[in-house]
From TrEMBL:
CDD domains, per database record: AAT_like
Gene Ontology molecular-function annotations: transaminase activity
Name of the protein described by the UniProt record: Aminotransferase
Annotated Aminotransferase class I/classII large domain residues: 28-379
Keyword tags: Aminotransferase, Lyase, Pyridoxal phosphate, Transferase
Family annotation (Gene3D superfamilies): Aspartate Aminotransferase, domain 1, Type I PLP-dependent aspartate aminotransferase-like (Major domain)
């Protein structure tokens, strides 16, 4: 399912936008946006075809299709040891929109939310869009234990939320139960909401395992709201579908009102809900094979990057991005990104503040969710170009 012949570059050049194949110059390999180059599981295409053949594409219930809500709740119950309830579970237009909706629901103008540094820009963007302030907390790359009690020094009377990205994009760190326990205790102590972004939670490499902070105990769970999506695991980015899971009626009501789903102003599309339901119910073996392929690509990517002049890269525990330290080249992240684009014909994401915060300075990020042939060519081009610096 994941050999070189599976990736259709011609189709990707027509359809894969968002910094990927359809937006880069001819001859450039994009290791940029973290989406898979592989087609989605065949069961998903079959389910969509079956649904649309009757040609009735009506509104779904504003709170979501019942089968979607049930599938998401069962996933968290069976796979994450989280007692999610369908009535507190509902679809959103992507995990990105879910992050925004949660910020809108729980933050007022002038209040504060703590985010990690580095981390995906969507947290800061969402917090600032609703008029609040994002307060960064540094998380170094690697496996070193994070003592979250240090984070407590950032808490003020204005602090209302902690944003947890686990696994952490872009470093690939998977937080341990002990680390998460401390974070949960801080949230309880200061009555903070934990926004737990779990979109990467399927993509974890042996010997590491994923723990949802909502699985630790009931008191922590009551302070937690989970947001997740299906683009990373199942290649459904274009269907714009994610889900939000609350654990009490108060939280659920606040999020639903903030979502604008109660009107026709906003809502999650029906086809996305059908696709995600199928993914959760039928595509487990496909996902397992995808993760096995990704572990091989991760190992090759890290090995080749560490063999490149001026680069060091710690193997990510989760996610399918490599976060490579390029300070040994003597160049900035932006300079290396430009140099690789021109010389190696490979597009990467520079570690600039607008993408990941100040903690990404001196790094580049590369996605390895592609075929062995494409990745091997890209890494060879990178290594050759850097060795001539």
């Amino acid at each position: 399912m994941f050999d070189d012949s599976t990736v259709n570059v011609d189709i990707l050049k027509e359809r894969a936008y968002n910094l990927r194949w359809a937006t880069v110059p001819e001859g450039v390999i994009p290791l940029t946006a973290a989406d898979p180059d592989f087609p989605s599981a065949p069961q998903i295409a079959d389910a969509l075809t079956k649904f649309i053949k009757d040609r009735y594409l009506c509104y779904a219930p504003p709170e979501g299709l019942p089968q979607f809500k049930e599938s998401v709740a069962q996933f968290f119950h069976n796979k994450r040891n989280v007692p999610a309830k369908p009535e507190f579970t509902f679809p959103v237009d992507s995990a990105a929109f879910g992050i925004y909706v949660i910020c809108k629901a729980f933050l007022e103008k002038g209040e504060e939310a703590i985010i990690f540094n580095p981390v995906d820009f969507l947290f800061k963007y969402s917090i600032e869009t609703v008029g609040a302030n994002a307060i960064p907390y540094g998380i170094p790359p690697g496996q070193e234990f994070v003592d979250f009690w240090e984070l407590e020094t950032l808490i003020t009377p204005k602090t209302k939320m902690i944003c947890l990205c686990n696994p952490l994009n872009p470093t690939g760190k998977v937080f341990t139960p002990a680390e998460l326990k401390i974070l949960g205790e801080i949230a309880i102590k200061h009555n903070l909401v934990i926004l737990s972004d779990e979109i990467w939670s399927d993509i974890v490499y042996q010997p590491y395992t994923y723990t949802s902070i909502a699985s630790l105990d009931e008191s922590i769970r009551q302070h937690t709201v989970i947001v997740t999506g299906y683009s990373k695991s199942y290649g459904l980015a274009g269907l714009r579908i994610g889900s939000v899971v609350a654990f009490n009626q108060t939280h659920a009501n606040k999020i639903f009102q903030a979502s604008l789903h109660q009107s026709t102003v906003h809502g999650a599309n029906v086809l996305g809900q059908i696709a995600a339901t199928t993914a959760l119910n039928e595509c487990g073996p496909w996902l397992e094979a995808f993760i096995q392929h990704l572990q091989q690509m991760r190992d090759m990517c890290v090995s080749e990057l560490n063999a490149s002049k001026g680069v060091t890269c710690i193997a990510p525990q989760g996610c399918y991005v490599a976060f490579a330290d390029i300070t040994g080249t003597g160049k900035t992240s932006a300079e290396i990104q430009s140099y690789l684009l021109e010389t190696a014909k490979v597009a990467v994401v520079p570690g600039l503040p607008q993408w990941f915060g100040t903690g990404a300075d001196g790094y580049i990020r590369l996605s390895f969710a592609t075929s062995q042939g494409i990745l091997s060519n890209a890494l060879n081009n990178i290594k050759t170009a850097l060795n001539y610096l």
